[in-house]
Amino acid sequence: MKDWQQWRIEQRSRLIEQRLEFAAELRLLYQVALFEKLQKVVDSLPTGTIGFYWPIRGEIDCRDFVCGLIKQGWQAALPKIIDSQHALQFRHWKPESIMQAEVWDIPVPQNTAIIQPDVLIIPLVGFDKNLHRLGNGGGFYDRSLSGSNKPLSIGIGFQWMLLDTINPRPHDIAMDRIVTEQTIYQ
Predict the structure, then answer these.
(1) What is the DSSP secondary-structure string of the chain?
(2) 115 vs 137: CA distance, rounded Å
(3) Which residues have CB under 8 Å from 140's CB, separation 6+?
(4) pLDDT tens-digit map of 29-58
(5) Cα 86 vs. chain centroid, distance in angstroms?
(6) Maximum separation of any 2 CA atoms in the chain, in Å
(7) Is 124 exposed, middle or buried (0-12, 13-18, 19+ CB in 10 A)?
(8) What value does the mean pLDDT of the chain take?
(9) Alpha-carbon span 170 to 175, nearest angstrom
(10) Confidence check: pLDDT of 137 > 60
(11) Per-residue model confidence as pLDDT tens digits over 162-186
(12) What are the residues facing 122 on neighbouring strands?
């Protein structure tokens, strides 16, 4: 087999292309089913702070879902990239937050508090049944989950993103749950 880095680059490219081409109507149906399952997971947790992400490159858009959680009493936070060697910093977010595009043109809340999420919703490029996540390749979520104050991590993606393995390395942190339109892996 090719070296693991080259394999991941190829898988990431293939899956992101497939995600970008995923038909809008089918995507919406899959997302409805996925968010129903994700709501069941969240309902089993104490209300707190949920970190999520601003969608890029065809990632599942969970902003409306998170707005619903805010109405249920949750606080929300979006990540800010500090640099390529550090964990993500999470900034308090509300729908009316002032946003500014930063690294990779990803909007980040401005002039809001830095808060520690209790739960993180994390986008998947690919995943395996051992709850390992293939992400965009920057390692930001792995660094953010490696500390002693680790939030509950929930990866979200579509069932077709399932791989036999992501060929995990020692630095890869497994998700606590992975939710797709078909099932909840835990």
Answers:
(1) ---HHHHHHHHHHHHHHHHHHS-HHHHHHHHHHHHHHHHHHHHTS-S-EEE-----TT----HHHHHHHHHTT-EEEEEE---TTSPPEEEEE-TT--EEE-GGG-EEESS--B---SEEEEE-SEE-TT--EE-SSS-HHHHHHSSTTPPEEEEE--GGGB-S-----TTPPPPSEEE-SS-EE-
(2) 24
(3) 79, 81, 87, 88
(4) 999 999 999 999 999 999 999 999 999 988
(5) 17
(6) 49
(7) buried
(8) 92
(9) 14
(10) yes
(11) 999 998 988 889 999 999 999 999 9
(12) 155
Residue keyed to tokens 């707190």: 48
Number of other residues whose CB lies within 10 A of the CB of residue 20 = 10
Residue type, 82: I
Cβ neighbours of residue 176 closer than 8 Å, sequence gap 6 or more: 131, 152, 153, 154, 186
- Give all domains of the chain, ordered by start, each with its CATH number: 4-185 (3.40.50.10420)
Q: CA 89, 118, 29: angle at the middle one, nearest 5?
A: 95
Give the side-chain half-sphere CA count within 13 A for 37.
Answer: 22
> d(Cα 135, Cα 140) in Å, to the nearest integer?
9
